[in-house]
Design goal:
7-stranded mixed sheet, disordered N terminus, alpha+beta
C-alpha cells in the first residue's frame, strides 16, 4: 500500500471527496486527488473508521487548502483557553465549536466517533441543525491546539471566534444577503425597464430596432452579477448535494436559472429578440426576498436563542452585607453573589469562602461532589451542596451555555428527523424534475415550444416542499412562543408530543398546591426559656425550602450569624452550628420526636444541643383557585398527591382528589417508585413540584414541571417551568399545547393544496416564471403566517 503519484485522467474521482483528479495519490487501492484527502483516509483506515464512506458516497471535503498547525499556537495560551472553555476540572475540559463544513449524516457519524481516533476525546455530541459540536477532552492526553488540528486534519476545521466576533460574523452574513438582494432588485428593475420596447413596440424604440437590440445586450451584461453573485447560494447548495449524488430542492431551481440564461443568450444573439432575463433577475430577487423573510420569521420564533428570555431565574447579589435579588442578565463582572445550598452558580466565578462542595452533574452528568477552596474558579452550572457560599463573578453569564445545559436532550432524535427531511427533499426533487421534463416534452410534441419552455421552468420553480417540511417547526415554535408569554417555559418541542399522551399528573403539596406568601405561623414553645430567634433564622435563611423561607420571613431577624457544619437533609430538615450551639430544624419523624397532639397543621421542630425547644405550627394557605383547577384536570387525567409532609391536610384534600389518590410522609425514593409504577402500567406521567426535594421523581417522570415564583433563583432539573400565577391555568395551557394537532392538519392541507394548484397551472405553461418565483417563497411565508396566526388565535382564548 505504498503511496505513489501519477498522472490521472479527468474521469477519475477522489475516493474521499469526489473531486476530479489532476494528479493521483494511491493508498489501499484507492485514488485521491491530493495528499490531504489521502491523509484523512489513512487516519480513518488506521482507526477502523472506514464505515464513514459507506454512510454516504464521497462524503469527505477537499483537503487541498492547507493551514499550518503553527497558526493555532495561540491556543496554547492559558488566557485563551480560559476564554474558550465552558468548564474545567483537573484535566477534563468542556468546549463547543461551530463546524461550518458539517453537511451530512457521515459528518455526524465521524465527529461523534472522534474518541476512536484519539482517546483524549472523552465525548463528542453533534447538534447538526446549529452545525455545532460539544466536546469533552482530557488535556493531559490532547491539548486544545491538538484537538483543533485533529478536526482540521479530518476536514472539519472549527470556526474559532469569541462571542463578540460571532455577532459580527452574523452581521456580515446579513449584510452579504442584503447586498445580493439589492443587486438582484436593481437588475430586475432595470431589465424590466430595458425590456419595455420589446413588450410594447416589438423591439423598436423610437422606430429604431437597433436601439432595442442594444438594450437586449445590455440586459445580458446586467444579468451576469445576478447569476454569479446573487444566485450563488442556489448553485452552491445544488452542487454540494450533486457531489454527494443527492438532490435537493435547490437543484431544479439552479437548473431553471441556467436554462433561462442559455435560452436568453440564444434569443438575443441568434434571433435578435428579447430573452427572459427580466424573469431571471425577478426569480432570484423574489426567492431571496422570500427566504429572508422566512429566516426572519424563524429567528423570531426560535425560543432557544436567549436564556434570559424564558427562564425566570434570579440571583442573590451580596452588596455591602445586604442581600439584593436581581435578574441574572443584570449580573456584572466583579459582583459578589450569595449562593445557597442546592442553588445553581449562574456564571463563572471565584470562590471567596474558604471551602465549599459543588455538584457538577448539571454540566458533566456525573453526580460526584467536588471540593473547592478559596480563590478557585467555579464554573457556571455547578450546584452548591454545602451550606452557603459567596462568589465573585469573573465572566458575564453565558446565555447560550446555560441554555444549552438546561436544554440538554437526545440529539439522535433531531438527527433522525433531519434524515427523514433529507429523504422527503430528495424524492420531492426527483418528482419535480420529472414532472417538469414530462410537461415540457408534452408541449414540444404539440409543437408549442414557448409553452414547453414555460412549463419546464415554472414547474421547477413553483413546486417546493419547504412549506410542508417547515409546518411542524413553525407550529411548535409558535406554540412555545405563546406559552412563554403565558409564563410556561418548555425546553423543547418534543415535550408537546408527550403532552398529547399525558394520562397521570402527580402533585407535590408544599409550594405547589400551597403558597408560602402569607402563611399563618405560630411558635409553640416546649421549654421555659428565651429562644435565640436570630440564631434559628441564621440557619433557616440558608435553606431554599418553602417552609424555611416562611419561617425566616416570620422571624424577621435583626442580625444574621455565621453558620458552620450546615447540612440539608432532603425532605427531612436542616442542621448546623450557630454561636457554638448545634441546631436541628425539621420534621418530628426525622428528629425522632413522639408527637402527642393531633396533626392538624404542618409542624417544624427546633432542637438545640439535643433539647427540643418547640415547634413552628404552619397553617397551609392553599393557592386561590387551586380547587377549580383540580376539578377541571380530573375530567381528563388521573391526579395524585405525593407529599413529604404528614397527613394533617388529608381531610381537606380528600374532597378534591379521588379516594386512595393521596400519599403522605413520602420520601424521595418512594415518590420515584410511585412514578415507575405508573409508567409500568403504560401511563405517561407529569410530576409537578418545586424541583427541590423531588429530584428522583422529576428525573423519572416523562414530564417534570417546576413551579417557581418571580424571585426563584434555582434552576430546577425539569422539562417545564411554570410561573406560580400560570399554574392555576394549567388545564387550559395543556389544552392549548394539544391544539398543535389541529394547526398541523390545517397547515399540511394548505401546503399540499398549494403545490397541487401551482403544478396544475405550471404544467399547462400558463404560469409566468416571475409569478412562480413570487409564489414559491410566498407559500412558505403564508404557512408561517397560518401557523403563527392559529397559535395566536387559540392563545387569545387563554386568560392568565
Amino acid at each position: 500500500m505504498a503511496n505513489t503519484i501519477n498522472a490521472c485522467e479527468s474521469s477519475v474521482h477522489c475516493y474521499h471527496c469526489g473531486e476530479l483528479c489532476n494528479q493521483s495519490f494511491h493508498f489501499d487501492d484507492k485514488t485521491f486527488c491530493c495528499n490531504g484527502c489521502q491523509s484523512v483516509y489513512q487516519i480513518l483506515y488506521n482507526n477502523q473508521l472506514c464505515t464513514y464512506y459507506s454512510l454516504s458516497n464521497k462524503p469527505g471535503l477537499n483537503q487541498k487548502v492547507f493551514t499550518k498547525n503553527s497558526y493555532y499556537d495561540f491556543l496554547d495560551q492559558p488566557e485563551v483557553i480560559d476564554q474558550l472553555i465552558h468548564y474545567k476540572e483537573d484535566s477534563s475540559l468542556h468546549i463547543s465549536f461551530t463546524i461550518p463544513n458539517m453537511h451530512c449524516s457521515s459528518c455526524i457519524w465521524l465527529l461523534e466517533n472522534l474518541y476512536k481516533i484519539n482517546p483524549g476525546v472523552q465525548s463528542s455530541v453533534v447538534n447538526f441543525l446549529n452545525k455545532q459540536i460539544n466536546l469533552v477532552f482530557d488535556a493531559k492526553q490532547i491539548s486544545l491546539k491538538e484537538l483543533v488540528c485533529l478536526l482540521k486534519q479530518i476536514g472539519y476545521e472549527p470556526q474559532l471566534s469569541m462571542q463578540d466576533l460571532e455577532s459580527k460574523g452574523q452581521q456580515t452574513i446579513k449584510r452579504t444577503w442584503l447586498y445580493k438582494l439589492v443587486v438582484a432588485g436593481f437588475v430586475f428593475g432595470n431589465t424590466m425597464m430595458l425590456s419595455l420596447p420589446d413588450y410594447f413596440a416589438k423591439g423598436n424604440f423610437l422606430n429604431d430596432s437597433t436601439l432595442g437590440l442594444y438594450f437586449n445586450y445590455l440586459t445580458l451584461v446586467l444579468s451576469v452579477p445576478v447569476l454569479v453573485y446573487s444566485a450563488q447560494e442556489f448553485f452552491l447548495s445544488a452542487w454540494q448535494h450533486l457531489k454527494q449524488k443527492k438532490l435537493n430542492i435547490d437543484t431544479p431551481i439552479a437548473l431553471a436559472l441556467i436554462i433561462i440564461y442559455l435560452v436568453s443568450i440564444h434569443a438575443i444573439v441568434i434571433q435578435h429578440r428579447m430573452g427572459y432575463l427580466d424573469s431571471l433577475s425577478g426569480i432570484v430577487f423574489f426567492m431571496l426576498l422570500g427566504r429572508y423573510f422566512q429566516t426572519k420569521s424563524y429567528s423570531v420564533l426560535n425560543f432557544n436563542k436567549k436564556y434570559s428570555s424564558y427562564l425566570p431565574i434570579a440571583v442573590t447579589k451580596w452588596n455591602n452585607k445586604k442581600e439584593e435579588s436581581i435578574a441574572i442578565k443584570d449580573l456584572n463582572i466583579g459582583d459578589d453573589v450569595l449562593i445557597r445550598q442546592h442553588e445553581i452558580v449562574p456564571a463563572d466565578a471565584i470562590l471567596i469562602h474558604h471551602e465549599a462542595w459543588f455538584d457538577y452533574s448539571f454540566v458533566t452528568g456525573e453526580s460526584q461532589w467536588i471540593k473547592k477552596v478559596k480563590n478557585e474558579t467555579i464554573y457556571a452550572g455547578a450546584q452548591l451542596k454545602s451550606g452557603v457560599a459567596t462568589l465573585k463573578v469573573s465572566k458575564k453569564p453565558s446565555a447560550s451555555y446555560l441554555s444549552q445545559l438546561w436544554n440538554q436532550q437526545n440529539n439522535a432524535k433531531q438527527d433522525d428527523k433531519l434524515l427523514v427531511t433529507e429523504k422527503i427533499n430528495f424524492y420531492f426533487s426527483i418528482a419535480v424534475l420529472s414532472i417538469g421534463i414530462i410537461a415540457s416534452l408534452y408541449w414540444l410534441l404539440q409543437h408549442q415550444h414557448a409553452r414547453a419552455f414555460t412549463a419546464l421552468i415554472t414547474v421547477w420553480i413553483v413546486a417546493c416542499p419547504c412549506a410542508l417540511l417547515l409546518s411542524s417547526t413553525f407550529t411548535y415554535g409558535s406554540i412555545l412562543h405563546f406559552l412563554n408569554k403565558k409564563g410556561v417555559y418548555i425546553k423543547n418541542a418534543s415535550l408537546i408530543e408527550k403532552i398529547k399522551h399525558l394520562k397521570v399528573i402527580l402533585f407535590d403539596k408544599t409550594g405547589t398546591l400551597t403558597t408560602t406568601e402569607k402563611p399563618e405561623i405560630e411558635f409553640i414553645p416546649l421549654v421555659q426559656k428565651n429562644i435565640a430567634w436570630n440564631e434559628i433564622a441564621s440557619l433557616t435563611h440558608l435553606s431554599i425550602h418553602p417552609l424555611s423561607k416562611a419561617i425566616t420571613s416570620y422571624l424577621k431577624p435583626s442580625s444574621i450569624f455565621d453558620v458552620s457544619q450546615y447540612e440539608s437533609k432532603t425532605g427531612e430538615g436542616i442542621h448546623g452550628v450557630v454561636n457554638k450551639n448545634f441546631y436541628q430544624i425539621g420534621s418530628a419523624k426525622w428528629l425522632q420526636i413522639d408527637e402527642q397532639s393531633e396533626n392538624h397543621f404542618s409542624k417544624v421542630y427546633v432542637v438545640q444541643n439535643g433539647n427540643v425547644e418547640g415547634y413552628f405550627e404552619i397553617k397551609n394557605q392553599y393557592r386561590k383557585g387551586i380547587a377549580p383547577l383540580i376539578f377541571s384536570l380530573r375530567k381528563q387525567y388521573e391526579l395524585f398527591v405525593l407529599s413529604g409532609d404528614n397527613d394533617a391536610e388529608k381531610n381537606r384534600l380528600q374532597s378534591w382528589f379521588k379516594k386512595g389518590h393521596l400519599y403522605f410522609d413520602q420520601k424521595p425514593e418512594q415518590k420515584n417508585a410511585f412514578v415507575i409504577k405508573q409508567q409500568n402500567q403504560g401511563f405517561t406521567t407529569m410530576m409537578i413540584g418545586d424541583g427541590l426535594n423531588d429530584t428522583a421523581a422529576f428525573e423519572q417522570s416523562d414530564i417534570a414541571v417546576a413551579v417557581v415564583d418571580n424571585k426563584n433563583n434555582v434552576l430546577p432539573a425539569c422539562d417545564m417551568i411554570v410561573q406560580e400565577q400560570s399554574l392555576l391555568k394549567l388545564d387550559t395551557l395543556l389544552a392549548y399545547a394539544n391544539k398543535s394537532n389541529a394547526i398541523l392538519r390545517i397547515s399540511f392541507i394548505i401546503s399540499i393544496l398549494y403545490n397541487a394548484i401551482g403544478l396544475y397551472f405550471a404544467v399547462q405553461g400558463k404560469l409566468l416564471p416571475v409569478i412562480a418565483a413570487i409564489l414559491m417563497p410566498l407559500s412558505t411565508i403564508s404557512i408561517v403566517g397560518i401557523c403563527f396566526g392559529l397559535a395566536w388565535f387559540y392563545a387569545k382564548k387563554i386568560k392568565t
